[in-house]
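> run fold SMI1/KNR4 family protein
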Amino acid sequence: MLDPALQLAVTQSFEGEDLPVGGIPDWFAAVSGGGPGPVPDFASRGVERYAAAIGQGTWDLQEWLYQFDPDSEFRGWAWWDLTRPGDHQVRIWVDTWGESFFACDELRWLAYVSGAEEVSGPTLVRSADWIADRS
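> ok
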């Protein structure tokens, strides 16, 4: 699901119009209120987990996509990498320019509705930790 959003970030102007959603999976559009269709059980559970952890409801699809605007002054991170340190675990790596606190609920939304049972962090680490995680 992250790939279509990142593709929009490098191909779209983000100038006031709705972003194209053709590459967005139907289930993600549905869970984010941006399309018809069934919401899979894992995504419904993710909405519940997100609400319990964050205390907020669902993200609107267009609002969520606009969080990937590379020129946004509101987003406190830039995409870095995704690694799998173990079975049933993934780590989302972003560059925060050294800031220990930054808004990242759009990443939590993605993780939960994609099936995450638990989301921790953000945690500020050195690039050497990322290198070690990749090997």
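The longest strand covers residues 78-86.
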